[in-house]
Amino acid sequence: MTVTESKPSYKYVGTRPVRHDGLEKVTGRARFAADLNMSGQLHGIVVRSPHAHARIVSIDTSDAEAMDGVKAVITGDDFPAVDPSHRQYDMCINVIARDKVLYEGHAVAAVAASTRDQAQAAAAAVKVEYEVLPAVLTIDQAMAPGAPLLHAHMMTAGANPPAEEPSNISNVTRFSGGELDAGFAEADLVIEREFTTQPVHQGYIEPHACVADTGQDGHTTIWCSSQGHFNVRSSTATLLGWENSRIRVIPAEIGGGFGGKTTIYLEPLAVALSAKAGRPVKMVMTRDEVFRATGPAPGTKLRIKLGVKSDGDLVAGDAYLIYTNGAYAGPGGLLGAMTVFESYKIPNFEIEALDVVINTARSAAYRAPAAPLTAYAMETMLDEIAEELGIDPIDFRIQNAVTEGDPSTMGFPFARIGFVECLEAVRDHPNYKAPLGPNQGRGVAAGYWFNIGESSSATVNLNEDGTATVVTGSPDIGGSRASMALMAAEELGIDVYDIRPVVGDTEAVGFTDVTEGSRATFATGMAVVEACRRMVVELRGRAAKMMGVDVDDIDWMDGQAVYTGSDGEKAPLSVAEITAKAKRTGGPLTATGSLEAHGAGPGFAVHLCDLEVDPETGVVRVVRYTASQDAGTAIHPSYVEGQIQGGVAQGVGWALNEEYIYDSDGVMENPSFLDYRVPVASDLPMIDAIIVEVPNPAHPYGVRGVGETGIVPPIPAVANAIYDATGCRIRDLPMSPIRVLDAITSNGGSNGS
Amino acid sequence: MAVRVHLSSNLRGPTGGVAEVEADGSTVGALIDDLDRRYPGLGDALRAGVSVVIDGLLIAHPEYEPLADGAQVYFVPQTAGG
Prior knowledge:
The complex is a heterodimer. By secondary structure, chain A is an alpha+beta fold. Chain A is built from 20 helices and 27 strands. Among the domains of chain A are: 386-449 and 601-749, Aldehyde oxidase/xanthine dehydrogenase, molybdopterin binding domain (Aldehyde Oxidoreductase, domain 4, 2-Layer Sandwich), CATH 3.30.365.10; 454-597, Aldehyde Oxidoreductase, domain 4 (2-Layer Sandwich). In chain A, helix 10 (332-339) links the parallel strand 15 and strand 16 (348-356). By secondary structure, chain B is of the alpha+beta class. Chain B has one domain: Beta-grasp domain (Ubiquitin-like (UB roll)). Chain B has helices at 28-38, 42-47, and strands at 2-7, 20-24, 50-54, 57-59, 72-77. Chain B has a 5-stranded mixed β-sheet with strand order 2-1-5-3-4. Chain B starts with a strand and ends in a 5-residue tail after the last strand. The chains are: A alpha+beta, B alpha+beta. The A-B interface holds A 158, 160, 173-177, 202, 258-260, 262, 331, 334-335, 338, 364-369, 408-413, 415, 449-454, 516-519, 596, 598-600, 697-698, 707-708 and B 6-10, 13, 19, 53, 56-61, 74, 76-77, 79-82.
């Protein structure tokens, strides 16, 4: 179902062709990083720390180096020293530890051998002597007076007055507006609630994998799975102290990323091993390694206080947010502060957000980083207030929703946004009034995400027969190839199936930033459109030559050069007719577009969750789910719906089951999909996606990114539905069966309010 | 070019908490230089991972972005994504 504002009539944009890479993926022909094998390749294995916090006293690799099949062993000493002031210091010492390990699973060495078994045996033979240090595993431990420090140099950024001593608090962010005390004094109802959440993993199906082949000329080629191969190149170059030009990165297909593959782990190790051994080196993480050493999204402690008038107007908000970013500084608190009140008009507010380091794996981005957690707190509290005031929860949100011209938390006025339209789309959907059965409940929640622009490049090559290739630098993590082909088809007038969308390597296309921030169809799409429009200028010129007329008398209409001058009738020329004579009119037809995309339009989503709670076991089953989201313009509606549905699935897992569990020493206890439960297809009903289209004026087709916003509302939507079904407000994630059951059976059926 | 500058609340330390100030600059970079002259220390804060919003457009790397006389420039923290 699509709610559409009036928009131009497009021939290709908004249609649903089969994705160009679809058949290869469903038949198994598509090649992911672990599918690549090279003649003479070695297998690399990482030696990882068994301790959450320890000083590395010594590493003895001699036994490992003497073992059968072993061709290379490396440690942190094989990489240039890096100063804490370096912009990518954290990334560098996370890829391979130097003097300290900061979490269980931290890489300390790597081995390459002829077989994987030999490499594993050799890795086990690397002798690392540790001085074990006290581990800091929780926010409270990290912030306690006298807490062991993870980083001796970490001074709290943003502290006022400036920090004088190092601590485990990496950053403080404060936003405010209006007069908080006056706002609460004006309120008729004030509620304050606290929430806790645990780290969760992005849960991509494909583990990190790469192959590196380093030649004697000092150049290397890397095949890998990532969300941005130019970032793999630059980060690997930084870690090795190499020039970018010595590294070529060829993107493999990606088996899920969700933000977790916006950074690197293996590639510099594979390159260094390959350089030392003189052979290609393949490295593939196990699932256990993926859990222990990559990802997760931050855990939090959140406290929010809201004030509201009896007529339903929000008047005051006070938020205190603490995010753990694992062992290194991260942006969780900042992003939480920027999202917590962003969707609503709250004239008086204060937000303080802290980022705290603890001895767990370094956090990585996960779809709309930080926002699902602030939404969990904020949207469940709004639900409580709406009930207290006797106002429909959607009407209450509409009353307070930001619209065009309203100030954001950061002060700037919103441009055209579609939040109210998303709320109305769910309110008006039949599912909002569908009857519920016994033990069933319904919850509504909204979500917001910024979306970003950044740099993108595209090249359009017309082939001799009039078909085309569109090369971009954005790995396709959600159907972006199809989007690029559709926009090119619309611009050029070439059938979408006659356009081959390709993800080019770092030597085949211009620089392109990581596929993150829901930016591929927005920003890389703009580069494609720019390249196509340059191509059209060229095609008009070639057609003018062929017709013997002035180029100003040639228009481009529906894939043809059309003469509009007054010198009689001339037959239009198709793309194929022009390309067939390209040698005679100026040579090959190619055009590029490279840009820094401005004006990423914010995304809003509103979700409606119906679920059933088993009162005897606490098991929650989602029975119906409806999700609206503003896509600006849906270039390929099926993949917009897919993004919405994927966000819902991951958000439901986050709400109900997923959490990192550590023992008292900081060792992860559930590093497998058996013990870390992500939703599978049979856990979820078909998710009814409603595409709302409020075009983004900054994009030639009105696109807003859609990849992330869909994960923001599910946690509070589920929490509100559980409350509706049981009368219990659960303010700790996950809302696992034991926690739901405990809430039902304790405290008279409610865990307090 | 006279420009109206709006600072998100986390950037107002050097202005003594003032949210809106006047400054001059034909580009965002020149504007930041002028702001630093008027409010010492603000320049460093604005060059460290700050985006701008001008006429509703979010611009992540605005140093050379031209400014019209009377422009309204909002400085905001840079965002990331997944």
